[in-house]
Amino acid sequence: MDDPSKCTLPTSTRSRPAWWNPGISVLAVNPSEPSLPVGMQILAKHFDEANLLRVADAYEKAGGFK
Hints:
Distance between the termini: 30 Å
Strand content: 15-25%
Largest sheet: 2 strands, antiparallel
Shape: flat
Number of helices: 2
Number of strands: 2
Order of helices and strands: HEEH
Mean pLDDT: 77
């Protein structure tokens, strides 16, 4: 990616404060391969924590992280 700041645009340029939307960080690298730890942040709509946790759990289970 030429400009890493493009990854922050959906949340940092909103008119609402950053704490408005719930987020969670999950492991985004295969744990069986030796490498530096890499995380991925998943964001959800305001008051949609239940769906956020379901998505994070499904991602971790699909990747074999649990």
